[in-house]
Amino acid sequence: ASAHRLDPDVPLLIPEVNPEHLQAIVSQRRRRGWERGFIVTNPNCSTIHLTLVLKPLMDRFGLRQVMVTTLQALSGAGYPGVASLDIVDNVIPFIKNEEEKLETETRKLLGRWDGETFVFAPLRISAQCNRVPTLEGHLECVSLAFERTPTREALIEALTSFVSLPQRLRLPTAPSRPIVVREEADRPQPRLDRDVERGMASVVGRIRPCSILDYKLVILGHNTIRGAAGAALLNAELLVAQGWLS
C-alpha cells in the first residue's frame, strides 16, 4: 500500500539502503503523540529494485541523472489484476501513479533524515512504466549519468561487493548477495532470474556504455517477494534487531 510513504516523518525503508532513516520514528512519535506505535512503509515494488542497485553506485561515484523504463509483471496489478483481453498479445503503456512513485520515492530513499524531515537526494529521475504479459518479475531498463564516471569494471565491482546492515546482522530474510550481476548478453530474464537469492536480490545485466548518458543496464527483480511481502518481512526483522519492535 502506498499510504504514508511520502509523509515527512515516516521512514520509507529498504534495509540495505537507508536503515538510518528509522531515527525518524523518534520525531514521528513525538509529533503524533504516540508512546509506542509507529509507521514504517515499504516502497513501490519497482522502486525497491531500482534503488537497491542505485545505492552502491551513488555512494561510490555519485549520480546526476537516471532514466528508467519498466516492463512490469501482471502480478504487480494485484487482484483481480488486468483483464485478460486487455493484456493478451498486448503491452499497456500506463500504470496509474507508477511513474510518479519511481521518480519521487527513489529520491527520498537516497536522501537523508536531518532530525526534523527527510531531505530528498538531488537526483533527476525520469520514469516510463509499462504493464507486460509476464506473471512475476519486473524488468527495468536504466540509463545513468554519474558525477564521477567509473570504468565498467569499477561499476561491476561496486555492485557485486555491495553488502549492508541486513547482511552484517544476518537477518533471516536478507539475501547474502543483494545484487547479482549476470554477464550473459541476454540476461537477466524473468523466468530464469527472478528467484535468485529466494527472490530477494536485484539481478543486473547488460552493463554497457550509453551514447547519451554514461552507462545503461537492465535490472530484474521479483515484484511480489522482494518487491512486497519479502520487503515487509525484512523491514520487520531489522526493526526487531534494532529494538524498535519486540
Oligomer: single chain
- Biggest sheet, in brief? 6 strands, mixed
User: Any idea what the CATH architecture is?
Assistant: 2-Layer Sandwich
Helix content: 25-40%
- How are the strands ordered across the major sheet? 4-1-5-8-7-6
Predict the CATH topology: Dihydrodipicolinate Reductase, domain 2
| The CATH H-level homologous superfamily | Dihydrodipicolinate Reductase, domain 2
Gap between N and C termini, in Å?
A: 24 Å
Report low-confidence residues grouped into runs of 5 or more: none
- Briefly note the structural class of the backbone: alpha/beta
**H/E series, N to C?**
HHEHHEEEEHHEHEEH
Number of domains: 1
The coarse overall form would be: globular
Rg (CA only): 18 Å
Tell me what portion of residues adopts beta-strand conformation.
15-25%
Number of strands: 8
Total helices: the number is 8
CATH class: Alpha Beta
Describe the SSE topology:
Elements: H1 24-32, H2 45-61, E1 63-72, H3 84-87, H4 98-109, E2 112-113, E3 118-119, E4 124-131, E5 138-146, H5 152-160, H6 165-169, E6 179-181, H7 190-193, E7 202-209, E8 215-221, H8 225-241
Parallel strand pairs: 1-4, 6-7
Antiparallel strand pairs: 1-5, 2-3, 5-8, 7-8
Helix pairs in contact: 2-4
